[in-house]
Amino acid sequence: MTTVQEIQRAVQHLPKPEMDYFRSWFLTFDQDIWDKQLEGDALNGKLDALADQALLDLKEGQCTEL
Question: What percent of the chain shows pLDDT beyond 90?
Fold first, then answer.
């Protein structure tokens, strides 16, 4: 099994073109994980309190236009 330390060493030795590819791949990979987590949290109601507070703030005029 590969350890994190082995992965770190391998990444440190990548030539620039491969590092650029890896960086792009990892960014997409990480964003996909984040999106799935956020979607799951929304479906499970974990964000409901935040949405309720935002709507209350809007109703009470405590928001500013961007």
Answer: 94
